[in-house]
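To assess whether the prediction recovers the assembly geometry, we first specified each molecular entity separately, as shown.
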Amino acid sequence: MLLHHDFSYTVLSILSPLLLLYLPSPTSAACECGYALPSNASPPQTFYTDLLETDFLHLKNLSTNTDWSPQNYTVTPAAARGPWGKNASLSNILTNPLASKYDWGSDDVLGGLELYVTGVGNEGAGGLVGMAELSSVREDMLYGSFRASVMFTGERGTCGAWFWYLNDTREIDIELLSAQQNASAHPINLVLQSPASAEAGFNAANTPTFSHPSLPFDPTDGFHEYRYDWSPTSVAFYADSHLLTTMTTSIPQVPGHVTLSHWSNGDKGWSQGPPKQDAVMRVGYVKAYFNSSDPHRQEDWQRRCGPSRDKEGQGGMCVIPDAVVGEGGMSGNATGKTFFFSEDEGNVGNQSISPGSWDGDVPKQSRGVKVGMSEGMVVVTLIVLVVGSFGILVAEVSPI
Ligand SMILES: *[C@@H]1O[C@H](CO)[C@@H](O)[C@H](O)[C@H]1NC(C)=O
Ligand SMILES: *[C@@H]1O[C@H](CO)[C@@H](O)[C@H](O)[C@H]1NC(C)=O
Ligand SMILES: *[C@@H]1O[C@H](CO)[C@@H](O)[C@H](O)[C@H]1NC(C)=O
Ligand SMILES: *[C@@H]1O[C@H](CO)[C@@H](O)[C@H](O)[C@H]1NC(C)=O
Ligand SMILES: *[C@@H]1O[C@H](CO)[C@@H](O)[C@H](O)[C@H]1NC(C)=O
Ligand SMILES: *[C@@H]1O[C@H](CO)[C@@H](O)[C@H](O)[C@H]1NC(C)=O
Ligand SMILES: *[C@@H]1O[C@H](CO)[C@@H](O)[C@H](O)[C@H]1NC(C)=O
Ligand SMILES: *[C@@H]1O[C@H](CO)[C@@H](O)[C@H](O)[C@H]1NC(C)=O
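The predicted structure of the complete assembly is given in tokenized form:
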């Protein structure tokens, strides 16, 4: 759980002839040292210094969010290695905010970012299939815990993907193929693309780091959390906080970015399709906690947290809560309401680009944190009452 500073306190003291002003050292951001996996996690004591959180259920306008870069590109059928090509267009990404920030959706009102693959009816192969893709602006992600709440399409013939990427041989991939789903089986494809995958012709199924377990739920029935925890020695894949598999070979050791994508190229061996009708993949949130390869950000962390991490025990480290998801996925106040560290400005100190997308409005400026100072304002109110020869000092310190 989130560790809190006790921000406010009251000092009542009797004034002595020598006025003793006791004030605490001003506080810093609560999570200035980083974000830790729970203590029973593997590897133990894993933590990350930076974060990217986006609440897509309440995001009104993607272009005001500076954390994400919607993609606009085309790929010919030949280059797409399928009978169809691909056309990633901004017009295939729609925001769909819930009515208010207190509203967390229901089975009838879903909300979330919509990534469309356009239906092609019964047309023959050869054109470009409309698709949707967005990537993080930050490309300095080196190890981390990457989580996305997604409701995949029930329309057959698309690939829904949530992945980390540097290039075709340095990639951590979760891919859901809608054509593989049926009433009795819900397979999901977990892949580390590596130099060995290149040798296998990028056919994921032939790569040594490929797993396709069946999910314990229907990924098209609601929002579920898909997650990969990438450390220097392993990549562990989770669905709704349940461990699916851990891979320990071909672990990438270079920085990259994360991407959400929904596409089809008609490849019989993979995406199949394209779908007959428009198919939508919904994204409820992204929560990414990661280390930065950027020396400036590493220095920032050193300054914020201190080389000895001596503030850790005082609340400078926040524990990332596991998603708790019911049978039908995350929906409504009971299970859809979810926690963002960035919702509370006091938690987050210059670890992100576009903090506070949770309010669905224009993002605030990137906030900095100076060592030894609260990034929020610390209001110090001193009321000195002198009554005769006695005085009472009331010092109240509270965050905003
Ligand atoms: C993340 O970076 C911090 C600071 O350099 C380091 O102490 C920590 O071990 C790193 N975490 C992982 C999982 O590598
Ligand atoms: C979204 O924000 C952009 C940039 O601020 C603005 O140009 C555009 O009109 C906005 N779109 C909507 C639908 O509000
Ligand atoms: C997308 O790319 C095409 C081709 O490069 C360009 O003509 C178009 O203006 C771009 N659209 C947007 C919205 O950036
Ligand atoms: C890609 O899709 C966009 C939006 O539907 C469309 O305007 C554009 O013409 C398409 N590009 C190609 C090359 O088909
Ligand atoms: C969800 O919780 C908020 C705040 O507690 C409340 O205002 C709202 O009515 C609740 N929504 C439903 C559907 O219960
Ligand atoms: C991918 O990146 C790695 C690490 O920088 C590099 O060694 C490799 O050559 C790249 N592979 C491709 C296919 O670009
Ligand atoms: C359901 O899908 C699984 C895996 O994709 C397949 O093995 C199984 O035969 C399918 N069952 C039916 C009834 O289609
Ligand atoms: C915040 O981080 C950026 C990127 O490392 C850095 O350029 C900037 O100086 C930092 N701001 C503060 C106040 O530390």
